[in-house]
Amino acid sequence: LEHLKQTKLFQCTCVRCSDPSEFGTYFSAMKCSGFNKELNCGGMLMPENEKSWSEGKWVCNKCQGSVETPRILNIVNRCKMDFEAMEKTNEQHCNKYIQHYSRWLSPNHHYIVDVKILLSQIIGGGSPDAIKRIPEESLMNKIKICQELIALFQKVCPGKRR
């Protein structure tokens, strides 16, 4: 929902976008444990209501702990600035971004997904033979990332196949 607002300048009110979990994708959610270290519940923080995107608080879907929206926005703004500044053709920079921001962002957060898409193209990209020359660790990372993206896209676009 917030991703559409930021990138398309439009606020969707469909059933899926009105669901705080965005149909279980957690595309804008934050990890509760990233903000509440003593609460390692594994839950996701989501806006308490529509106004919570800009004010109010975000509430964990497991422990009901809450975080004030300005703290959430501070992290999201840092994610955005670092994403914009990141060298998007550098595999190490992309991996470092995911490793760093995975503390706060859900695994399917739109910034993490954007970087995973970049990595899926970078690793073994370039020439048809490039995939044969990449280290096994990078290849396994690419497979894992692609599987995660496929699972996400099946939720976002069920029934769509390319």
UniProtKB/TrEMBL annotation:
Give the superkingdom in one word. Eukaryota
Q: Which Gene3D superfamilies match?
A: Tetratricopeptide repeat domain (1.25.40.10)
Do you know which PANTHER family this protein is assigned to?
GH11294P (PTHR46455:SF4), SET AND MYND DOMAIN CONTAINING, ARTHROPOD-SPECIFIC, MEMBER 4, ISOFORM A (PTHR46455)
Q: What is this protein called?
A: Protein msta, isoform B
Q: Which organism is it from?
A: Culex pipiens
